[in-house]
Amino acid sequence: MKAEYINPFIESTLSVFKTMVGIEPKKNNIYIKQGDEPSFDISGVIGLAGQATGSVVISMPEDLALEVVSKFLGENKKSVDDDVIDAVGEFINMIAGSTKKVFSEKGLKFKISIPNVIVGKGHKINRPSNVPCLGVKFDVGNKFFVVEVALKEQ
Predict the structure, then answer these.
(1) What does the CA dihedral 143, 37, 118, 114 come to, rounded to 10 degrees?
(2) Nearest partner of 58 among 89, 24, 98, 18, judged by Cα
(3) Angle, nearest 10°, between helix axes 62-73 and 82-105?
(4) 6, 89, 122, 124: least surrounded by Cβ within 10 Å?
(5) Beta-carbon count within 10 A of 45 CB
C-alpha cells in the first residue's frame, strides 16, 4: 500500500468526528498492522472493490463507542445495542464514502460495500495476505481508537 493513500482516510476521519460528533480526535502514530486481531471491542468494516481493493476498519473500545455514539445520537447510551452498532457502521460508511470521493477525483475509482459491525473481545478481521494494512491511532482525551486501511491498486 502506498503510504500517501492513508492521508485521505486520516482527513476524512478527523472531519467526520468533528462534524458529526463534535469531537476533535488527535492523530497519533501510523503503524503497519500485523495479523487479524482487532485493536478494540467494536469494529466497523467496509470492503473496497474496483481499481483498488481492500478494506477500511474503525475499531474502538466499548466505553469510547458508547461515548461517541451518545454524542452522535444525542441520547445517553449505556450498553451496546442496535443503535450503537448502526452508528459505528455509519461512522465507517461516512469515512469510506468521503475518502472514495477524494480518490475518485485523483483517478482511482472503487466501490464501497455495506458496512459490517463486529462486536466482542477477540474478534478477528481477515484480510487478504497480499494486501498490506496501515493503521492510524487517534486520541480522544485519554482514550484511543484506530482506523486500519488495507488498500491495493489493481
Answers:
(1) 100
(2) 89
(3) 80
(4) 122
(5) 22
Q: Residue 92 corresponds to which amino acid?
A: I
Q: pTM higher than 0.85, yes or no?
A: yes
Residue 73 cell numbers, joined? 445520537
**Cα distance between residue 65 and residue 84, in whole Å:** 7
- Alpha-carbon distance of 33 to 30, in angstroms, equals 9
For residue 153, list its beta bridge partners: 52
Measured CA to CA in angstroms, residue 109 lies from 55, 56, 85, 123 at distances of 14, 15, 28, 30
**Which amino acid, residue 4?**
E
Residues 31-88 pLDDT 10s? 988 877 767 899 999 999 989 889 999 999 999 999 999 999 999 999 999 999 999 9
